[in-house]
Structure formats: C-alpha cells, structure tokens
Amino acid sequence: MEIRPAAEADLPALLAVFETAKAFMAAHGNPTQWGPGYPGEALLRDQIRRGVCYVAEADGQMAGTFCCLPGADPSYAQIEGAWPEDVPYLTIHRLASSGRIHGVARACIDWCAARGLALRIDTHRDNLVMQRMLQKNGFVYCGVIHLAENGEPRLAYHRPARRPA
Predict the structure, then answer these.
(1) Which of 4-8, 31-35, 87-91, 127-131 has the lowest mean pLDDT?
(2) How far, in Å, CA of 132 to CA of 135, rounded?
(3) Which of 64, 68, 109, 138 qualifies as a cystine partner to 104, CB 3.0-4.6 A?
(4) Strands (E), the chain
(5) In which region does residue 143 sit, left (phi positive, over 0), alpha (psi from -120 to 50) or beta (all else)?
(6) Taking the alpha carbons of 69, 70, 75, 78 in that order, is the dihedral positive or negative?
(7) Model confidence over 66-125: pLDDT tens digits?
(8) Which of these, 22, 24, 25, lies nearest to 39 by C-alpha position?
C-alpha cells in the first residue's frame, strides 16, 4: 500500500470514502461519531492545503485516508485519566477505509509510526471496531478527552514511539 499526501483532485474520492466509513460505523453500532456533512469539503480542503491529509492507495485506487497532525493537539491537553508519557507525538484523526482492501488502518498507523514519534488517537465510545483495531496495533487506552471544537467525549489512546533495535 502506498501513502501519499492528498491533493485537491482527490476530494470526490475522499468524500466517498468517508460516506462508506460512516455507513460501516452505523452498521456496527456507531451511527453518531461522524454526523451528516462531516468531515466536509471545507475541512478536507484546509487539511490538504496544510499538507496533513493523506491517501492510502492500492493498485492505483484509493483504499483509505487519514490525517496526521504534528504537535500538541488541544483536545488532548486535559484528560480524565493519564497519558503514559509526556513526549512529542503525532495525532491521527479521521482514519477511514473504502472497505475494498484489508489492512488500511495498519498501513496508515505504520506510516505514522515510521516518523519516529509517539502516536495518539481518539475514538467514539461506540466505535468498538476501532477500539479493537487500536489495541491490536499497540495502542493503550489512557482515558477520556473532550474535543476542543464541541466538548464531546472521546476515548483516548497512546502508542509509544518504537525504539530502533
């Protein structure tokens, strides 16, 4: 699987991936994490412009997408629980799959981890599929954070940076 920065030309395919992901989440007991219109064209355009939106491709087709943000995430400043370490980290947001190819989440996480920093991510309490996937990929549950933009609670996870052998 190839990971590359998203481009403006990817917008229709990105929006389609998110619609597929929302349908999958709803079918698996998580109908409210991403509401109608989310993430939306304006947010995606901004993240593409900032160079933090990425596409996972397989055989020339979009298999998934994610956002990888460097620096401290304002939503993670306060946690009901505790982060296991106070270190620089990358935040993964909006990890979504087209549903056509297996292994998208692992490929995206591995790509982020290869940057050499700890990783943080959050998910909705009802997103049991994501919670299991995070645990399989070395993340530990740390507590509850509240999103900076609307105060909604999310389960927060952390994965330490992998040290070279």
Answers:
(1) 31-35
(2) 5
(3) 64
(4) 2-5, 53-58, 61-70, 80-81, 89-97, 118-123, 140-146, 153-159
(5) left
(6) positive
(7) 999 999 999 999 999 999 999 999 999 999 999 989 999 999 999 999 999 999 999 999
(8) 22
H-helix or E-strand containing 86?
none
Residue 102 has which token pair? 């297996």
Global pTM reads 0.94
How confident is the prediction for the chain on average, in pLDDT?
95
Q: Give the tokens for residue 14.
A: 């990105």
- Whether omega for the bond prior to residue 31 falls within 30 degrees of 0, making it cis, is no
The CA angle 138-149-6, to the nearest 5 degrees, is 60
Task: Name the token pair of 154.
Answer: 């999310």
Complete edge-to-edge strand list for the sheet that includes strand 89-97: 2-5, 53-58, 61-70, 89-97, 118-123, 153-159, 140-146, 80-81
List helix spans (H) across 28-127.
Answer: 41-50, 104-113
Crossing angle of the two packed helices 11-27 and 41-50, in degrees rounded to 10: 120
Which amino acid, 70? P
